[in-house]
Amino acid sequence: MAANLGLLKSRRLARGPRDLPAPARRLVFVVLLVGLGGACAGQAFLLDGDAYYARVAYAGDMESATAVAKRHCAPFERVPRFREFQEDSAYFDCVRP
């Protein structure tokens, strides 16, 4: 009997997310989703590019978009020069200094 009690306690302590009631699981999911969306919303990141250009996801902060383009162009011994905006992307040419 004591062994069964120990097993029951360990099962109760080892509960995972599937043991939560459905509304609580939904709440946890929504909180995580909103948190991730807020964390990624303002950050510029490289979408694509090569030695001659960089396309950066632009969220309104030109300084962070330029910094991403600088990091992309630097290994090619080039510097970014702003070319244009298109929707939510900023295009930079990677040119020799």
Summarize the structure.
The chain is an alpha+beta fold.
Explain what the structure shows.
There is one protein chain. The chain has helices at residues 2-13, 22-41, 62-73; strands at residues 45-49, 53-57, 79-86, 89-95. The protein is α+β, with helices and mostly antiparallel strands. The protein has two domains: 2-40, no CATH class; 42-95, no CATH class. A four-stranded antiparallel sheet has the order 1-2-4-3, with helices on one face. The longest helix has 20 residues, at 22-41. The radius of gyration is 24 Å and the shape is elongated. The model has no long low-confidence stretch (mean pLDDT 79).
What structural class should be given to the helix and strand makeup?
A: alpha+beta
Strand content: 25-35%
The count of DSSP E runs of length 2 or more, i.e. the number of strands, is 4
Q: Tally the structural domains.
A: 2
